[in-house]
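Escalated from tier 1: NAP holo job.
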Amino acid sequence: MKKISLLGSTGSIGVNTLDVVERNPESFQVLAMSAGSNVDLFAEQIRKFKPKIASLFDTTKVATLKERVADLDVEIVPVEEGAVATLPEVDVVVSGVVGSAGLVPAMQALKAGKNLALANKETLVIAGELVLKEAEKTNSQIIPIDSEHSAIFQALNGEKKERIKKIILTASGGPFRTYSLEQMESITVKDALKHPNWDMGAKITIDSSTMMNKGLEYIEAKWLFGLDTPVEIIVHAQSIIHSMIEFVDTSIMAQLGLPDMRVPIAYALTYPDRFECDLPSLDLATMGDLTFEAPDFERFPCLQLAIDALETGQTMPAILNAANEVAVQAFLDELIPYKDIAEIIRMVMHNHRPSPLNDLQDVLNADQWAREETTKLITVTH
Ligand SMILES: NC(=O)c1ccc[n+]([C@@H]2O[C@H](COP(=O)([O-])OP(=O)(O)OC[C@H]3O[C@@H](n4cnc5c(N)ncnc54)[C@H](OP(=O)(O)O)[C@@H]3O)[C@@H](O)[C@H]2O)c1
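Tier 2 regenerated the structure:
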């Protein structure tokens, strides 16, 4: 029985993780859960999965949560205590939190020696070096949940990292893959929230449409599989091949499957083993064509911004990430047009003077600076 702590249980990754747990009650038990502000769903989940402890980030709703679960044997603990990420009897912490809010609990989990099943890519994007150092110190393992990184992780099984020639990171291309620059001028929130293959939270869905998601994944892949490893991004509209590795002998290993996050979540929970999953299989005979094309950096400038941010290093990836989070939220709130997302991030990066990241506080300061700078720019220019 694997004992799990789930951060961000009310989100898309959280709900999929609980689905995997529910299908395998003899293998998994959820001992701790956290959520942001969706008190209704969180109370329901607590009732069903009966964790020992739970935390809600939105302090204005904690009293309501306590009332809703008063008849249950669960302790509602303040988020800042970090108890959900560090509960002693937990084997693996799943992070399905969205955005840079995932960094602190991920670091707490690693510090406590927990294995980390990581969906929250922002953790590695903004603080890759510090996160890896912490994992090394406590001998904790980081197992990626992001489907592309899970594919690479699986393709690397039994292989040596030094034998990788390049990582081939696949991208669906999002809903605007075939849009012209002119068509991109009038994209609405509704258009951008319609991902062709994946059903995900709002922020990552917008990131997929701008291809910032692939940029963040590029940074995530570099931290997970080696900063010196070349990463090629290739658009594969069907999202069947989740990513590949080309080895030094030119042999390519790929991982395929239907776009269903429960597969990489289950793998992260069972690794290095696998278990039988009662999920639909890929039907190769009816699947149709698999297509591949190079990404278009002109129509999707966020991709280059992310690559540049990693190249600059130090605080810059944290700046890129925070500026993106604020700009995406402003787009979702209909404060800025779609095409301004990339432009605003570019301006914030331009205005930033990178500095070294010595500790967690440096990351949090950079994140805060970029949020304020982005908000200021949006206010002045819109
Ligand atoms: N969805 C996918 O298929 C997918 C695939 C690959 C990678 N990822 C990555 O996984 C992460 C989660 O994505 P998602 O699509 O599941 O997002 P989502 O549906 O928006 O869910 C985010 C979760 O984080 C919680 N949360 C938000 N702010 C929080 C805070 N300050 N403290 C604690 N919890 C907080 C939310 O709680 P409330 O809802 O209660 O406010 C929710 O449970 C992202 O980093 C994303 O890039 C997602």
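The pocket of NAP is lined by residues 8-14, 34-38, 57, 96-98, 101, 119-122, 146, 198, 200-201, 203-204, 261 (CB under 6 Å).
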